[in-house]
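4.2 Preliminary Data

To establish feasibility before requesting continued support, the project team ran the inverse folding procedure on a target of 419 residues. The structure was first converted into the token representation described in Section 3, and no sequence information of any kind was made available to the design step. The complete token record follows.
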């Protein structure tokens, strides 16, 4: 038994030089992406592609997806597949609306988290205690969440001011961050449309001009999740439950307890995503307003390789494409050129690693998007509305070669199997 524990123990923590190398790579990726976006803006003349308004809309659209993705990271790192993120997010929308109406936005934040946690508890009871198939439990939870919220909305909101059987509007919103001197200066610099400099300034202006404090809270939760799961003993034990629960059991880890904690936290994050939809992304509660964002969050988690910062990058991509459908036609059309250039970059990177098959595939897709851009003047509005879902499918289809899910993710576990 000790041999099993030794063989399946997680690798040693990265050295400071390795962490510095990863930080340097992330910096290069960020700078490179900004340079590509800036190039597309200059070539196409579509300044809306990364204007202050576009970036603000993209960040707000990203946060619900990112919170669902972080919830998925917590659950699946402990070995529990959480298809029920959508249902937990739906429950969070009702909790946010009800508690905000009666007690204010900060209590509404707690209410959304509690309703999401209820969904997490239901999923944990089904999968951990009773061994129900994770997919079946998640789908059932999505159905239960949608049905329960439709009932609760009709029962509690119909007689309220601004309420109805399917909605509750006029809710107070969380505070917004405003740094006038910095935001105004950055916005002025962004308006000059200089290469790269104005693009960076637009990001600064977006974060400092009437931005919801929830965006900063979500960013803090990404850092918090990464720190807990990869820098603490608690996180090491939780991840061991998703890699080899039998080995974790031999080392004295209460696998059931860690799985319960992870799935409940997963529900809390998804519930907070519902809060973002009700009080930040829109002006109130409406039944069915999640619009499949729980599923997109699950895709962002997978595309991000079950890691918080990877999920954040993927969620930002999906949020950006979601926000772009509200921009003008020229900006949506320029998105084709942006996708083409990114595909060429991916093709080059795959070729450098000797992966000719995927390199050629990326290059062919890049040529297709480039030809589409050159031979068209605008993208049909109907297609623009599909961009978040098309981006999701493309990302998952093109990233499967580099993904590694936790080894025991979704596999049944019963206490005592290690013996």
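Position-by-position output of the design step:
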């Amino acid at each position: 038994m000790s041999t099993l524990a030794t063989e399946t123990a997680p690798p040693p923590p990265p050295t400071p030089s390795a962490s510095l190398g990863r930080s340097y790579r992330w910096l290069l990726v960020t700078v490179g992406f900004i340079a590509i976006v800036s190039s597309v803006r200059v070539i196409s003349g579509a300044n809306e592609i990364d204007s202050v308004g576009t970036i603000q809309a993209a960040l707000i659209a990203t946060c619900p997806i990112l919170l669902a993705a972080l919830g998925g990271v917590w659950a699946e790192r402990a070995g529990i597949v959480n298809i029920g993120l959508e249902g937990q997010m739906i429950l969070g929308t009702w909790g946010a609306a009800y508690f905000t109406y009666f007690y204010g936005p900060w209590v509404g934040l707690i209410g959304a988290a509690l309703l999401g946690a209820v969904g997490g508890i239901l999923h944990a009871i089904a999968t951990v205690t009773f061994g129900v198939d994770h997919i079946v439990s998640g789908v059932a939870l999505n159905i239960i969440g949608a049905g329960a919220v439709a009932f609760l909305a009709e029962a509690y909101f119909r007689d309220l001011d601004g309420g109805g059987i399917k909605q509750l509007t006029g809710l107070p919103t969380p505070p917004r961050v405003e740094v006038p001197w910095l935001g105004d200066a950055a916005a002025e610099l962004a308006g000059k449309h200089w290469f790269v400099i104005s693009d960076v300034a637009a990001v600064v202006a977006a974060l400092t001009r009437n931005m919801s404090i929830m965006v900063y809270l979500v960013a803090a939760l990404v850092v918090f999740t990464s720190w807990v799961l990869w820098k603490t003993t608690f996180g090491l034990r939780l991840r061991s439950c998703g890699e080899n629960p039998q080995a974790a059991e031999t080392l004295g880890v209460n696998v059931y307890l860690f799985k319960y904690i992870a799935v409940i936290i997963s529900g809390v994050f998804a519930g907070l995503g519902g809060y973002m939809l009700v009080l930040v992304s829109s002006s109130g509660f409406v039944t069915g307003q999640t619009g499949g964002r729980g599923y997109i969050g699950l895709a962002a988690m997978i595309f991000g390789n079950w890691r918080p910062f990877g999920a954040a990058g993927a969620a930002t991509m999906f949020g950006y494409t979601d926000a772009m459908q509200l921009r003008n036609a020229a900006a949506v059309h320029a998105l084709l050129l942006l996708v083409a250039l990114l595909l060429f970059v991916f093709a080059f990177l795959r070729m450098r690693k000797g992966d000719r098959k995927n390199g050629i595939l990326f290059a062919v897709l890049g040529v297709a998007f480039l030809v589409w851009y050159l031979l068209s003047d605008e993208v049909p509005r109907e297609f623009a509305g599909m961009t978040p879902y098309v981006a999701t499918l493309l990302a998952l289809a093109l990233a499967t070669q580099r993904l590694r899910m936790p080894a025991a993710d979704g596999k049944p576990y019963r206490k005592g199997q290690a013996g």
